Amino acid sequence: MRNMGGGKKKQSLKKMEDTGKKKERKESKSKESATEKKSAGIIPPDPKSKEVTDKLKKMKVLTPYTVATRFNLRLSVAKTFLKELEKQGIVEFISGSKNTKIFKPAD
Hints:
- The protein is 51% helix and 10% strand.
- It is mainly alpha-helical and 107 residues long.
- The chain has a domain of 56 residues: Winged helix-like DNA-binding domain superfamily/Winged helix DNA-binding domain (Arc Repressor Mutant, subunit A, Orthogonal Bundle), CATH 1.10.10.
- It has a two-stranded antiparallel sheet with strand order 1-2.
- The chain starts with 12 loop residues before the first helix and ends with a strand.
């Protein structure tokens, strides 16, 4: 009787070449995408800047998420940025829960 053992079948030369080319393409794509990605800002914009206050006044409602997306910030940085703006009187706290705070531009 023959032993019908399992295991991986040996690939043909053509198949080996194809898998090698696929790996090369994958590596080159990952290198390109890594350079294109923008990291979220860690440093918030200057709250005293005229253009920053103009952008904030155009927005009806300010949440940490909307500020983070508008100014390309991390969410934690946007939260502290909004707290700082509230201390300076640029924005007013409307309502919020434990997780989300809602602000509006001061009049």
